[in-house]
């Protein structure tokens, strides 16, 4: 089956439709120019996101000293970065029904996505003298880079269940390679196709389209940042006990982001427990 065949099949099933106004919300949440009050004014137009943010602010994950009953209070409690991350994640997750694909691990997927977003923002911030990459755009690109995996799992649940099982049986086989072998397309290509259909902001599409493949294609500046962030997130999740001793960590030192690897690793290592709890609060089945 060719890539075009798979895309035709996915398109025939109907592209997932974002809620009305979602592109505006994604654009606003992906901008580094908005302060907390401006984010409140944007988010309050979307009742479902507002409800989830207020609920999160009152959850055990947040543990407020007293109940929070307004979006303004919730955003103040959670902070700008969490509001952006959660708002974007909830918006893009809404169209997908993954109940038919039990092999899809939503908690781990969103843990990886949120760690990638944090790492991408950190790499972009530290490398601004070397590459003009907007840290907030890098954050959003990292969060959405693997969204094609969610689309494939929701539309091709039986095939994806089999692929997830194969990867679990042989951890050395890459997910991208299995997808290309079995489906004729990987999650990166699927995500870029979906991102264009959704009209995502150009820097995000740049990272999704030009992040470079496992076969070694040269990435663009934002692609280099997100690619390094993806590797860092995988290392942190796979080797929580001693991430710096992981072979993949040593390999990451050879990339364009190598001068910043240790600092970003240190920054993110302390976030793993909180990110796991947040992913479980929002997305665990």
What would you note in describing this structure?
This protein is mostly helical and about 280 residues long. The protein is about 65% helix and about 0% strand. The chain has 17 helices and no strands. The model has no long low-confidence stretch (mean pLDDT about 85).
**Average pLDDT over all residues:** 87
* Share of residues in helices: 55-70%
Number of domains: 2
The general outline is: globular
Identify the notable features of this structure and list them briefly.
285 residues; mainly alpha
Short description:
This protein is mainly alpha-helical and 285 residues long. The chain is 66% helix and 0% strand. The chain folds into 2 domains: 18-94, no CATH class; 98-283, Hypothetical protein af1432.
List the helices and strands and how they pair.
Blueprint (H helix, E strand, L loop, with lengths): L2 H10 L9 H8 L6 H8 L3 H11 L13 H8 L1 H14 L12 H21 L8 H10 L2 H9 L1 H13 L5 H9 L3 H12 L3 H9 L10 H18 L8 H6 L8 H9 L2 H12 L2
Helix pairs in contact: 2-6, 3-5, 4-5, 6-8, 7-8, 7-14, 7-16, 7-17, 8-13, 8-14, 9-10, 9-12, 10-11, 12-13, 13-14
